[in-house]
Design a protein that fits this description.
Helix content is about 45%, strand content about 15%. Strands 1-2-3-4-5-6-7-8 form an eight-stranded parallel barrel, surrounded by seven helices. The protein is α/β, with parallel strands linked by helices. It has one domain: Alpha-Beta Barrel (TIM Barrel).
């Protein structure tokens, strides 16, 4: 009997180990190019950018090929979108604007089969060849909620009480906007809010995640973040600037 495909990010997080996630990939070909490099997961962007349902299916298959978890940001915390995203082969969903305990409960309910939720009874591609998929899927399906607004910070203690959420992801750019410091993630008030949110997540015994780069990744790991998302676009920009600067 074929076994369900394991989610490498969930495996690492269960062990308390940092798990990496790379974003900025808009096609299966780019995933194939970066697949051998060793990242644990790919952040597929369906809130912004051009990825449609057909493209999403191809991208999740590419992730499967290279043993990476496919994690897709939906453009709303909506049961229909969550169900279809998982049916298209994504191993997890990232859900925006989770500002209350009720929002968090709705996210889990839509992403999990009974008894944890009410996900529509259709397995999608990840279920193919797995006869007992409906009884195993909850263990591999990943739920990430975005803490990206002041309202979420105000209600964080209640949000953290919701079971079934794998990662509480503190989103710096959106948070800075709602704090009145749009485009200024480095503002001391924003940095303080990020650090406070991470500390509260960790102290509650839950898993924290955030956006990192080469310079601050180690510091965020020290602060307890375990789901570490970064964009490869920054590496391309820096390397291309260095290349052009070397012109004689």
């Amino acid at each position: 009997m074929p076994a369900i495909r394991p989610n490498p990010v969930k495996d690492k997080l269960r062990r308390g180990e940092p798990a990496t996630c790379i974003s900025g990939l808009l096609s299966s070909e780019i995933i194939d190019f970066l697949g051998p490099l060793g990242f644990d997961s790919v952040w597929m962007e369906c809130e912004h950018g051009p990825v449609d349902w057909d493209t999403l299916g191809d991208m999740t298959r590419a992730c499967d090929l290279w043993g990476m978890a496919s994690v897709t940001r939906c453009n709303a915390n909506d049961a229909g979108l969550i169900t279809r995203t998982l049916d298209r082969g994504s191993m997890g969903v990232v859900l925006p604007h989770v500002n209350t305990r009720a929002d968090a409960e709705a996210a889990v309910g839509a992403a999990k089969f009974a008894p944890l939720g009410y996900r529509g009874m259709f397995g999608g591609r990840q279920s193919f060849g797995v006869p007992d998929y409906l009884h195993q899927a909850n263990d591999q399906t990943m739920v990430v909620v975005l803490i990206e607004e002041v309202a979420a910070l105000d209600n964080l203690d209640e949000i953290l009480k919701v079971d079934g959420i794998d990662v509480f992801f503190v989103a710096p750019s959106d948070l800075s906007q709602t704090m009145g410091h749009i485009g200024n993630v480095a503002h001391p008030a924003v940095q303080s809010a990020i650090d406070d949110a991470l500390a509260r997540i960790v102290s509650a015994g839950r898993t924290a995640g955030t956006l990192v780069n080469d310079d601050n990744m180690a510091a965020y790991v020290d602060k307890g973040a375990r789901f570490l998302m970064t964009s490869w676009n920054g590496w391309v920009a820096r390397s291309s600037a260095d290349f052009l600067a070397r012109l004689p």
